[in-house]
Amino acid sequence: MSRTRTTCPGCDRDDRVQAVPAVYLAGRDAVTSRERNRDGDMRTVTRTVTTGLSDALAPVPRPPTYGIVVLGVLAAFVSLATFIGGAQAGHWFEDEPAGADGDGVPRVGGVYLVPDGSTVPDYSQPLGSAASPPDFAYLGLISAAALLAVVLVAVVVHRRRAAFVRLTRGRHRAEELWSRGWYCHRCGTAHFAGVPGEDRAPLTLQRFRERVWEHGGYGDLAAEQRAVDPGRS
Fold this sequence. Notes:
By secondary structure, the protein is an alpha+beta fold. It is built from seven helices and nine strands, in the order E-H-E-E-H-H-E-E-E-E-H-H-E-E-H-H.
């Protein structure tokens, strides 16, 4: 490990002291591997592997998860499937005019009475109505409800993303303080050096996170996303 001119305030040694940004970046590796997809074909996959120590020294909170997107995708599938199924089964978009049934007599879903001695139906006296085929209107309602769910999911995701951007808009201030931090691998503590208003006292990873995140304006999240202890790094 490279030596530094900064000594640890806990052990008063510098042989195991490293800049926080260097420790953070050293714990984040891109690992490429070969694996089979669902069709059995081989593919190359690259994943980011992060150590617990690197996570603990992160200058910004983890972004919100969007598991709700899965619900939106399912709702979109239901909306599309029910709409297509209803349109085809219910003939929603087919304009069926009153047509002839092969004998020149119009049929409009009814059966007409033919007077005795006549071959011409009496259109003013319908005998009854034939049963209309189902229009599957309920599928349209299901499709509309599912589409509404898609819109709601999109709104929720957009609002969460916008809220996170607003919350972390002061990250440049946090990163400025964070970049001047040092970590001692022997003591498992962090400290600041040469920062006005900050003493050189050794800090636990959680306390270091709180100080950095408070500087960025999102210190409240440090209680929700707690840093791991050195023993787990």
